[in-house]
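**User:**
Make up any protein.

**Assistant:**
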Amino acid sequence: QVQLVESGGGLVQAGGSLRLSCVASGSIFSINFMGWYRQGLGKERELVAAITNAGTTTYADSVKGRFAISRDSAGKTGYLQMNTLKPEDTAVYYCRVIARKNDYWGQGTQVTVSS
Protein backbone atom coordinates (compact mmCIF):
# COMPACT_ATOMS: atom_id res chain seq x y z
CA GLN A 1 0.00 0.00 0.00
CA VAL A 2 1.39 3.37 -1.03
CA GLN A 3 1.19 6.30 1.30
CA LEU A 4 2.22 9.93 0.94
CA VAL A 5 2.70 11.88 4.12
CA GLU A 6 3.17 15.62 4.10
CA SER A 7 4.57 17.64 6.98
CA GLY A 8 5.97 21.05 7.72
CA GLY A 9 2.87 23.18 7.47
CA GLY A 10 1.90 25.68 10.09
CA LEU A 11 1.27 29.31 10.91
CA VAL A 12 3.81 31.89 9.83
CA GLN A 13 3.90 35.66 9.50
CA ALA A 14 4.08 37.28 6.10
CA GLY A 15 7.66 37.33 4.87
CA GLY A 16 8.51 34.16 6.71
CA SER A 17 9.50 30.74 5.45
CA LEU A 18 8.34 27.15 5.70
CA ARG A 19 9.66 23.90 4.33
CA LEU A 20 7.17 21.20 3.42
CA SER A 21 8.15 17.55 3.14
CA CYS A 22 6.46 14.68 1.34
CA VAL A 23 7.52 11.14 2.10
CA ALA A 24 6.38 8.30 -0.15
CA SER A 25 6.26 4.88 1.47
CA GLY A 26 5.14 1.42 0.46
CA SER A 27 5.49 -0.34 -2.86
CA ILE A 28 6.18 2.66 -5.01
CA PHE A 29 8.81 2.60 -7.73
CA SER A 30 9.95 4.72 -10.64
CA ILE A 31 8.46 8.02 -9.57
CA ASN A 32 8.10 10.04 -12.75
CA PHE A 33 6.52 13.13 -11.27
CA MET A 34 6.27 14.77 -7.88
CA GLY A 35 4.21 17.89 -7.45
CA TRP A 36 2.86 20.24 -4.83
CA TYR A 37 -0.64 21.58 -5.20
CA ARG A 38 -2.64 23.88 -3.00
CA GLN A 39 -6.27 24.66 -2.40
CA GLY A 40 -7.36 27.83 -0.68
CA LEU A 41 -10.75 28.24 0.92
CA GLY A 42 -13.38 28.43 -1.78
CA LYS A 43 -10.80 28.04 -4.51
CA GLU A 44 -9.89 25.29 -6.95
CA ARG A 45 -6.84 23.16 -6.39
CA GLU A 46 -3.86 24.51 -8.33
CA LEU A 47 -0.38 23.34 -9.19
CA VAL A 48 2.28 25.16 -7.21
CA ALA A 49 5.46 23.36 -8.26
CA ALA A 50 6.51 20.08 -9.80
CA ILE A 51 9.64 18.11 -10.54
CA THR A 52 10.14 15.21 -12.92
CA ASN A 53 12.50 12.27 -12.62
CA ALA A 54 14.79 14.13 -15.03
CA GLY A 55 14.94 17.04 -12.63
CA THR A 56 12.85 19.41 -14.71
CA THR A 57 10.94 21.85 -12.52
CA THR A 58 7.79 23.84 -13.08
CA TYR A 59 6.38 26.66 -10.97
CA ALA A 60 3.18 28.63 -10.85
CA ASP A 61 3.83 32.25 -11.80
CA SER A 62 2.64 33.37 -8.37
CA VAL A 63 5.45 31.52 -6.58
CA LYS A 64 8.37 31.85 -9.01
CA GLY A 65 11.43 33.19 -7.26
CA ARG A 66 9.98 32.45 -3.81
CA PHE A 67 9.40 28.68 -3.76
CA ALA A 68 11.77 25.85 -4.65
CA ILE A 69 10.93 22.20 -5.17
CA SER A 70 13.47 19.42 -4.71
CA ARG A 71 13.77 15.67 -4.15
CA ASP A 72 16.26 13.59 -2.27
CA SER A 73 18.64 11.24 -4.07
CA ALA A 74 16.44 8.22 -3.43
CA GLY A 75 13.57 10.05 -5.04
CA LYS A 76 10.94 9.16 -2.46
CA THR A 77 11.09 12.34 -0.41
CA GLY A 78 10.22 15.69 -1.84
CA TYR A 79 10.48 19.17 -0.43
CA LEU A 80 8.92 22.53 -1.05
CA GLN A 81 10.93 25.42 0.35
CA MET A 82 8.66 28.42 0.64
CA ASN A 83 10.20 31.82 1.24
CA THR A 84 8.80 35.33 1.44
CA LEU A 85 5.37 33.92 2.19
CA LYS A 86 2.32 36.04 1.56
CA PRO A 87 -1.20 35.85 3.02
CA GLU A 88 -2.43 34.69 -0.38
CA ASP A 89 -0.26 31.59 -0.02
CA THR A 90 -2.61 30.41 2.72
CA ALA A 91 -4.02 27.04 1.67
CA VAL A 92 -3.93 23.32 2.21
CA TYR A 93 -0.88 22.00 0.38
CA TYR A 94 -1.01 18.54 -1.17
CA CYS A 95 1.73 16.32 -2.46
CA ARG A 96 1.08 14.32 -5.61
CA VAL A 97 3.21 11.52 -7.04
CA ILE A 98 2.87 9.73 -10.36
CA ALA A 99 4.69 6.44 -10.57
CA ARG A 100 4.28 4.02 -13.47
CA LYS A 101 0.99 5.67 -14.40
CA ASN A 102 -0.31 5.31 -10.83
CA ASP A 103 -1.46 8.58 -9.29
CA TYR A 104 -1.17 9.17 -5.54
CA TRP A 105 -2.12 12.10 -3.33
CA GLY A 106 -1.25 12.95 0.24
CA GLN A 107 -3.73 14.07 2.85
CA GLY A 108 -2.58 17.68 2.82
CA THR A 109 -0.93 20.05 5.26
CA GLN A 110 -2.29 23.45 6.22
CA VAL A 111 -0.21 26.55 5.61
CA THR A 112 -1.50 29.79 7.09
CA VAL A 113 0.26 33.09 6.49
CA SER A 114 -0.79 35.99 8.70
CA SER A 115 -0.47 39.60 7.62
The first strand starts at residue 3 and ends at 7. The mean pLDDT is 95. The two ends are 40 Å apart (CA to CA). Residues 28 and 73 are 15 Å apart (CA to CA).
